[in-house]
Amino acid sequence: GLPGAGNILAFNNNNRGRASAVVELVPPLDGGGRFNPPAPGAAWDPPAPLWSYSAGSSFFTAHYGGNQRLPNGNTLVTESTKGSLFEVAPDGRIVWEYRHGREIARALRYGYDDPAVSRLRTSHAEDDPLPAPVYLAVAPNPARAGTGIRFRTVRGAVARVTIADMLGREVRTLHEGANPAGEGYVWWDGRDSRGAVAGSGVYFCVLRCLGRAALVKPVVLE
């Protein structure tokens, strides 16, 4: 259902030439839309890609790499060894870029309405505003050794503070129990519920109280 559906989008590392490329290929199909392989012993060799992105030696990753076609027709590219993510338009323009500074094997972009995101998002009617619990601060952020989380409940209630990953999976419960009206404070040491150090990445703080969930800005672990 995305632009270029049915085509093959491939990341060409081109390690020898030290100049990578993303190519979009149109596979040979029969009249029914099924793959039409070449004759036995022959190779399918399209004369040229339908679309490609390259930038000479300035775009290169010796291993890994990723590409994802987006609903707007742009392509999300992971330049792995440089730790760079960027979105490129069909005309080759880079519309945004993020440099992590360390290696990223692969990245995927999730839309606002993706089920993995909606599990973290608060859903409520326009005439039913976000309930009392709100977060005040997450600091330091980004974090290495840990981060402090301040939250507030307008009236006393049972509150549950958790850390979730980008897929909405719970990583750690930091607080669960009756919380008096006013501010609360918890500290996350960057470890999961088993005591293992959570990997570098983006995590969300979630407060559940009064039958609702409030999501706050992510915590970035370096």
Compute the CA-based radius of gyration.
23 Å
Give the % helix.
under 10%
The sequence of SSEs as H and E is: EEEEEEEHEEEEEEEE
Give the N-to-C terminal Cα separation: 36 Å
Give the overall shape, derived from the CA principal axes. elongated
Annotation, overall tally of beta strands: 15
Counting helices, strands and paired strands, the structural category is mainly beta
Task: Describe the structure concisely for a colleague.
This protein is an all-beta fold and 222 residues long.
Structure description:
The protein is an all-beta fold. The chain is 2% helix and 40% strand. It is built from one helix and 15 strands. Strands 10, 11, 13, 14 and 15 form a five-stranded antiparallel β-sheet that branches. A four-stranded antiparallel β-sheet has the order 4-5-6-7, with no helix packed on it. Residues 122-133 have low confidence and may be disordered.
Keywords:
mainly beta, 5-stranded antiparallel β-sheet, elongated, 222 residues, 4-stranded antiparallel β-sheet
Element layout with pairings:
Layout: E1 8-12, E2 21-25, E3 51-54, E4 66-69, E5 75-79, E6 84-88, E7 94-99, H1 115-118, E8 134-139, E9 147-153, E10 157-164, E11 170-179, E12 182-188, E13 201-209, E14 212-215, E15 219-221
Antiparallel strand pairs: 1-2, 2-3, 4-5, 5-6, 6-7, 8-9, 9-12, 10-11, 10-13, 13-14, 13-15
